[in-house]
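Entry 14. Two folds queued back to back today. First construct below, sequence then structure tokens.
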Amino acid sequence: MLIAALLWIIVSRLSRFKVLRYAFLVLTEDFFMEETHKEYNLRASEDAMAVLLDCDISTIEIDTLVSNLSKELKELRIENPPDQKQLKDQLQQIASVIPDLVDFVLINGEPPVPPLHGRIEWEGDFFNTGFVASKEVGKIDYREKTSQGSVNKGALLGHQIPVKEGKDGLNVFGKKIPAEKPILYYPKVGENVRFDANKNAYYAEKSGRVRLINDILSVDEVYTVDEDVDITTGNIIHTGAVVVKRDVLGGAKIEAAGNIEVRGIIENAEIQAGGDLVVHGGIRQSEGHRVVVEGGINAMYIDGGNIQANKDIVVSREIINSTLHTLGAVVIPKGRIVGGEIVALRGIYVGRAGSKTYTPTMLVAGEDFSVRGKLNLKKIKIKRLAMELEQLKNVIDRFMTDSVDDQEECTEEQTKVQELEQELQILIKEAKDISSESAERAGKVVVVEDTLYPKTTICLGEEKLTVAEECVGKFEAKIVDGKIKLEEKLVSDIN
């Protein structure tokens, strides 16, 4: 400002240079305006949902500031800006508390109102696979489950909560911000379940255990075994739920369309469940024995074997030398994973990973174990169709080259080409959809609550990190700048 004033004195004395004086006035008008505007910073936020102001009100005359702000709000084309009186009242009120403003919200847009999604309000805790924590001793009671999955005939299971549309919002420029579309989620009616359309409610048609798998609500008749399941009892195949009050031992096999609950342990047995698997004791398997579960798994420990689930695998104590594949998460925050390979699409949460003896331990997060087989099958079909398509095109080319008179046969071959090309495009799209769906559900995260030992390998997507030194504390493995980094976390960060 001082420099401009001095220049004006010099130029004004050169009165005969009128053109020069006029040019100076034009240039310095912008200069003075720029100086004035530097006293505050008015702008829209990145999401255009607010107008922000940086300004030290104590250094500026309030009426001048209000006048400049009002003018600039119009220049920014802010929708329905407050008038000068409203601006002045707002600034005076905040100035008495915080005169030096930084990112002060002068104007707010109208955020969209989220919808109420269609859902089921359940009458009981039917689907919790955990165990009750004893208040007296502060430990988990593995004899008592948290959920109350058994119901009597005619019991109300739950009723539908209808959807409610959201409301569109407006940003500060008056542009509409569409509200999220409501999600309609109501399970289909399965075995032994009745839906009352007048009451929008689900009822049990038989006494049994409630099961919700693949968006189908069923009530399974319960088959209860009071003794050990082993070679003396024979294999068990049941269309509903199975409860074993003791152990499942060497060579035994249980197949159930519903949930399986074992009050003791599973040892060297074949298990296949259409619902959840709950083991009050642990799972101890040798190589060659498989556990395949459509739902989730909850157990005290897992020692060896090949375990596969479509939902979360929750373990309280330890997972030792096991191969676990799940489309959910592996959750063992107070226990340890030693040896073996853990592949979890939704992430891995563990207390201690590896061992003091440097046992190689593989933790793979964010990978869909089921996708590889599906994609390979699609690729084989795509390759076969591409070969057929190439052969047909060669035949058509010969028709054209040889000027064959059989026009009808040529037309048939061209129709086949069109059909194969359409089928090929469908297969390619399906393969892309499988990859995209898997990527959307992926949780590329490994959280270690206590200790991470050397020789533990963490895989997130295509990236791999083998731990070289013992890390004590709470760590989260994540991708940073294309590489896996171990970031130390506070308890609040992780929870």
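Second construct, same run, same settings:
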Amino acid sequence: MAKRRVALLFFLLLISNNASSISEEEKGLIMLADKHEQQLRTSPARSTNKIMEEYIRDMACRIAGEDCSNIRVYLLRAPGLNAFMMPNGAMFVQTGLLLRVTSDSELASVIGHEVVHYSERHSLERARTAKRTQQVGNLLSIGLQVGGTGYMESSLLISSIAGAYLSAYSRDAERESDTKGLSLVNNAGYDPTAASRIWENFKNESEASGNSGMTLFASHPAIDARMSSLKATASALAGTRSTDIRVDEVQLLTMVDDFRLDFLNDEMRSMKPKQFEVLLSNQISFSSISDGMDNYLRANAWIHSAKQKGVNEKKLQKAYENANDYYAQGMRSESGMPSAGYREWAKLNERLGDNCQAKTAFSEYLAKEPNAWDAKFVSKRLEKLDCVKNNPSQSDSPKEKVTKTRSPKIISSTEEKKSTKIDAFEKASSKCLALGFKKETDSFGKCILELAAVN
């Protein structure tokens, strides 16, 4: 009898020690999550759009129910189809996700998924297993080592922290979050069938990026499998959705429309041109992007790719050809391009040696923006451009013009310096806008001149 009592006491002691150990692990992980939350909450990447952030927070509370008081929602100005939940109750939603959803119910399905990760303690359970290999610990520590306040630093901070928490989920946990999350979404009055549409729209974009058959996150099931599972779950919930709760399915879409071009520019800087073109094609199906704007954005994507390090001459020429084609299509479109498109097209044609087309585009820019901040600078460029030099046949198509002109590398150093100066003004303009200066003001012009001189 005494031996049995000793054995029982020893067993209880083991349980007690194990429970204490698990508790310490949880505390440590939550403390780390608190630090990450603080980093992202105060980083430049956090969106300043409090109305949109509050709207998403209200949606999360509606879905989370009793867990609402434990959840904090933050909106990050960052590209990518992504949202992630920390074990301390901090949820982060990226504007790249908002850009891609076509209804409130689609976003709700993602929110419901993340809420279940928190309520079912998925990250804590997975962390205990991963701790043996230091997988999660190593990934999480990256976020704490990222410093700086620039765009690149903020992007690295988000990707390292998001990647750490997303990798902490097993595929079983992902499936559980899908199933239980849709139930929460359904109970809150949202349409559970909307969940699979996100992945349907994202599939071709994923394939264009080279992630064929997989999402951006390694822990998530393959896209086809996930769509099938989401459709089956939604079908099982058919007829159980409350008809007393009304959901405005276009409210979020309307809110995002005001910032869609800004979010698209974020995406353009983070992906390859062909993937960006797929994203744009998806956008046109549910947004009000005009033909002219569509072609302008596509051209900008190829110009951006040409500026990246390590681009060889063949790829550079191809990027310029594609950009030239899209600018030409944008000019011919019924809506026309934004004014800046004509200026950018002129700069491209200067690089390609087609001074006649450059003069035409610069003239069109000034006709549309006679009081532009750089109007005097562009006017001087027009005076110096000689239409006779390097002038391809006027009957040539835009693509033929490009192939008949000299390679960008052969353009003289003087011409390259002129283009560089224009680029400096462009960069200075973006920085001044980011600092809060308003266009067509004296202070805006002074800001540009000062920054361009520094560059």
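Quick look at the second one. The mean pLDDT is 79. Residues 9-251 form one domain.
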